[in-house]
Design goal:
Number of helices: 5
Strand order of the largest sheet: 3-4-5-9-8-7-6
Distance between the termini: 39 Å
Largest sheet: 7 strands, antiparallel
Number of strands: 10
Strand content: 25-35%
Helix content: 25-40%
Structural class: alpha+beta
Radius of gyration: 16 Å
Shape: globular
C-alpha cells in the first residue's frame, strides 16, 4: 500500500504541475506584458506584509539545501525523496507539457509521504515570467486563493488550490540573481491537522543563505 501511495503521489505532483503549465500557457503575450507593467508598479508601491509561521521542529525532517545553495528548507517529517526512476518519470511529464508553453520547469526534488500520498515538489522555473506574473496566471483558475507576503528575506506568492481529494499550496519565490523556484505542497484528503501543521512548519523553515 505504501509503495502504491508513493507512486500515486509522485504522479499527482506531476499532474498538478502540468495543470500549472497549462494555465500559464493560456496567459497570452499581451497579458504577460500587462502583468509585467502592473507588477513593476506593485513592487514600487505595495510592500507585501511580513508573515510569521508557527514552526514545530518535531514535525520536520532534515534540512535540505537547493543545488544553487541560495535557499534551504525542511520537508515535513517522514516525507522522503523519490528514487531516480520516479524522478525521471515526473521530469519527463513536466518537460512534455512545457514544450509549447511560456515557461518550463526543471525538477529539483520531490518528497513524498508514502503513508498518505502527500508530496512536496521543488522545481526551478525557466522563462521570463516573474513570481507575481506566475501568481496572476494561476489566480485565473477556479477554487484558488492568493497571498503575497515576505518571509526569510524573500517575496513569496502563494496560491492555494483545491483539487479532487487534495489541497495544493504553490509558493513561487526568487532569490537575487536566480531563476524563480516553485515549492508545491500537495496534501491529500487523507491528511489530518498534524499534516497541515507540518506543511506550515515546512514553509516557515524556508531560509536564504
Amino acid at each position: 500500500m505504501q509503495i502504491s501511495n508513493f507512486t500515486a503521489a509522485a504522479c499527482r505532483a506531476a499532474v498538478l504541475f502540468v495543470g500549472l503549465l497549462l494555465l500559464l500557457s493560456a496567459c497570452s503575450p499581451r497579458d504577460r506584458s500587462s502583468d509585467r507593467r502592473t507588477a513593476g508598479a506593485a513592487n514600487a508601491s505595495d510592500e507585501p506584509p511580513q508573515y510569521a509561521f508557527s514552526v514545530d521542529p518535531q514535525l520536520l525532517g532534515d534540512r535540505y539545501t537547493l543545488p544553487d545553495g541560495a535557499m534551504t528548507l525542511q520537508p515535513p517529517a517522514g516525507w522522503q525523496p523519490v528514487d531516480d526512476d520516479t524522478r525521471r518519470v515526473v521530469q519527463r511529464r513536466i518537460m512534455d507539457s512545457a514544450s509549447e508553453g511560456p515557461i518550463s520547469g526543471n525538477l529539483i526534488e520531490l518528497f513524498v509521504d508514502a503513508g498518505t500520498g502527500s508530496a512536496l515538489t521543488i522545481l526551478r522555473l525557466d522563462g521570463e515570467l516573474t513570481p507575481r506574473e506566475i501568481g496572476r496566471a494561476l489566480e485565473q483558475a477556479e477554487a484558488t486563493d492568493k497571498a503575497v507576503f515576505r518571509h526569510a528575506g524573500l517575496e513569496i506568492v502563494q496560491i492555494r488550490s483545491v483539487a479532487t481529494g487534495a489541497v495544493a499550496f504553490s509558493l513561487i519565490t526568487q532569490a537575487p540573481d536566480e531563476a524563480p523556484v516553485l515549492l508545491q505542497y500537495v496534501v491529500t484528503g487523507a491528511a489530518d491537522d498534524p499534516a497541515m501543521r507540518a506543511v506550515e512548519s515546512s514553509i516557515g523553515s524556508l531560509r536564504t543563505e
